Amino acid sequence: MKSVAGSVQRGFTLVELLIVVIILAILAAIVIPQFSSATVDAQESALDSNVNSLRSAIDLYRAQHNGKFPGAVAATGATCTVGTAGAGAINTAVAVIDQLTKFSSAIGTTCSGADPTTLLGPYLRKGFPADPITNSAAIAVATAGIPLAPAAATGGWSYDVKTGQIVMNSNATDSKGAAYSAH
């Protein structure tokens, strides 16, 4: 016969629970750094992709606009029957963005809609991308015509209207030790 007073419930002891918690902590310590490394690799791959897309768009714009790079002429002055005219003055970030993301004429004037006078472009259909490292889409426009070498880690883009060179506006280094501006 079983005694009611003598029944024992079996459970986990404190030592067993501590061992399980320690094992989970060790596994987490091994796995979490691998995920953060994957995030950095993904951001750097996205940076490479964005830079390549921007460079391709700039090259195509130049080919269709008599050798002129975006921003080298004003985006203003279009008479748009569809959409609104661009607002970017010569050598400004607004002109660069307008000329790459809107429809343009052969002389660089832009409209937000396709118009009989603005049949070229847009070259970036999803808008001007942000750099994936700092998430900034700001553009520092240069007119020196010399290779760009950012002096700070501001983020966004650095672009020269005379050469068409575009780089990430940062002197910080990536996970491999190369400057982001060298991507």
Distance between the termini: 81 Å
Task: Output the structural class.
Answer: alpha+beta
Q: Percent of residues in helical segments?
A: 25-40%
Task: Count structural domains.
Answer: 1
**What count of helical segments does DSSP give?**
2
Q: Describe the main β-sheet briefly.
A: 3 strands, mixed
Number of strands: 5
Estimate the global geometry from the Cα principal axes.
elongated
What pattern of helices and strands is seen along the backbone?
HHEEEEE
Rounded mean pLDDT is 91
Strand content: 5-15%
Strand order of the largest sheet: 3-4-5
Low-confidence stretches: none
Radius of gyration (CA) equals: 28 Å
How would you portray this structure in words?
The protein is an alpha+beta fold and 183 residues long. The chain has one domain. The protein is built from two helices and five strands; from the N terminus they run ααβββββ. It has helices at 14-64, 93-101, and strands spanning 103-104, 110-111, 139-142, 157-160, 166-168. The strands form two sheets. Strands 3-4-5 form a three-stranded mixed β-sheet, with helices on one face. The protein is elongated and about 95 Å long.
